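User: Sequence recovery, please. Input:
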């Protein structure tokens, strides 16, 4: 078993759950000992024109860890990439419309003072702020009020969420084209999260979110597998469902819900790590480091591997133990799937297409391979092959490619994303759903297509921890 342990962080840029410097604060998750953890940014920023030291932020902690008062990682000094390019103002405007309860105020001067034998304690400025807030009126804002930009994309998301809520089944799950499935249920839950609806907090979709999460948890197998019905093997469903649980742990402030999800998540991550080392997989070096349809598969493919990498990266951010060696070997496999002509193939030596290229590029980016030759070649490939309605596995492309290009940088994202948004808005049905013109997508059903569309349209909101740059 891969029990909780202190392990090196992933070879990646710091990826906070919510970015304070972008106007949206990190959300911490309560632990059983009363502490909190996950998603803490490197340093809290100061307003423009104000001098003074930045406030060191806490490092990410393992499950059940005590909060350190000082020590390594208090302020790493590593800066995240800021968005640049012509769409930056639009993103900034969207973030400014975020709820007041989800904004972080920035303060001049140090907020914490060193006290011998105690560590960092609230300073005079923080105490003054508390007194000020005690007498100042605060606007009443719903905890789950989503951005109200009034753009066509915002309205499209709103209609889609209504559709998803209305089509949820009594047991909390959602149907795929092949029956009730943890995979599609998890995608639907993440759609609400991506639009800013936080698990465990009041709002119009709280019940739908909670029921969906519990459906997935209650269908976990003895070996940790998260699956009900599946069309291509259980590891697809498992990777998607593991990703969802990690995102819930990274967002919710409900300690009880977080603990339930964390327990299930730990078992799910353990299965992914074991499946990467399935007996016999090392016989062919080209297959090493990846995953395929079954936990016991001895070969690998990029499609299944992409979901496992996403799940592991999100789980690591949520405080789970994910050894760096497992990530290193996954990265090596993904790079072997890169094509000489640019893009990524289904397996090493395979021909590239948009869905596979988005998968490979995103996997490398979130694992710290930012602007690696393979990732840049993938981004260049996608810009040269803009999205087309009815393309093969179109909604797979819809999910992966915007995220991938958003991570690589605005130069690529701005060249690709507006056209994708136009296509999605044009083909949304009156009831708020989508159904692909591609037969492969249609086999997943309307819930699958609709969820993937929402997750694409919500990339710029950056509410999901995995969306953070």
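Assistant: Recovered sequence (469 residues):
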């Amino acid at each position: 078993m891969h029990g909780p342990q202190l392990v090196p962080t992933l070879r990646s840029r710091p990826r906070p759950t919510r970015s304070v410097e972008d106007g949206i604060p990190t959300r911490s998750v309560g632990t059983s000992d009363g502490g909190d953890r996950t998603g803490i940014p490197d340093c809290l920023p100061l307003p423009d024109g104000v001098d003074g030291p930045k406030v060191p932020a806490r490092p990410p902690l393992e499950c059940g860890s005590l909060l350190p008062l000082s020590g390594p990682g208090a302020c790493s000094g590593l800066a995240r990439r800021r968005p640049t390019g012509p769409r930056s103002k639009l993103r900034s405007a969207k973030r400014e419309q975020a709820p007041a309860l989800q904004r972080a105020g920035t303060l001049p001067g140090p907020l914490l003072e060193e006290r011998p034998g105690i560590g960092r304690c609230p300073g005079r400025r923080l105490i003054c702020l508390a007194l000020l807030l005690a007498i100042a009126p605060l606007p009443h804002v719903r905890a789950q009020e989503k951005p109200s930009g009034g753009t066509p994309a915002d309205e499209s998301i709103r209609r889609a969420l209504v559709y998803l809520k209305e089509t949820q089944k009594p047991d909390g799950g959602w149907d795929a084209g092949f029956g009730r499935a943890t995979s599609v249920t998890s995608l639907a839950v993440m759609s609400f999260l991506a639009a800013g609806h936080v698990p465990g907090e009041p709002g119009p979709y709280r019940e739908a979110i909670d029921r969906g999460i519990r459906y997935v948890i209650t269908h976990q197998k003895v070996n940790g597998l998260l699956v009900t019905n599946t069309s291509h093997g259980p590891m697809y469903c498992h990777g998607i469902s593991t990703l969802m649980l990690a995102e819930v742990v990274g967002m919710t402030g409900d300690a009880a819900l977080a603990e339930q999800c964390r327990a299930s998540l730990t078992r799910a991550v353990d299965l992914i790590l074991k499946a990467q080392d399935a007996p016999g997989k090392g016989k062919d070096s080209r297959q090493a480091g990846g995953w395929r349809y079954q936990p016991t598969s001895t070969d690998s493919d990029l499609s299944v591997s992409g979901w496992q990498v996403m799940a592991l990266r999100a789980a690591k951010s949520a405080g789970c133990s994910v050894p760096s060696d497992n990530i290193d070997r996954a990265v090596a496999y993904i790079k072997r799937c890169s094509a000489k002509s640019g893009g990524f193939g289904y397996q090493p030596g395979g021909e590239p297409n948009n869905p596979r290229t988005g998968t490979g590029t995103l996997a490398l980016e979130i694992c710290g391979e930012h602007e690696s030759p393979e990732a840049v070649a993938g981004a260049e490939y996608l810009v040269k092959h803009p999205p087309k309605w009815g393309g093969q596995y179109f909604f797979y492309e819809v999910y992966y490619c915007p995220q991938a290009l958003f991570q690589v940088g605005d130069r690529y994202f701005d060249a690709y994303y507006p056209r994708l948004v136009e296509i999605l808005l044009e083909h949304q049905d009156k009831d708020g759903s989508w159904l692909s013109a591609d037969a492969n997508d249609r086999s997943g059903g309307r819930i699958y297509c609709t969820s993937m569309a929402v997750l694409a349209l919500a990339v710029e909101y950056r509410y999901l921890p995995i969306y953070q740059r």
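The domain at 152-467 is CATH 1.50.10.20 (Glycosyltransferase).
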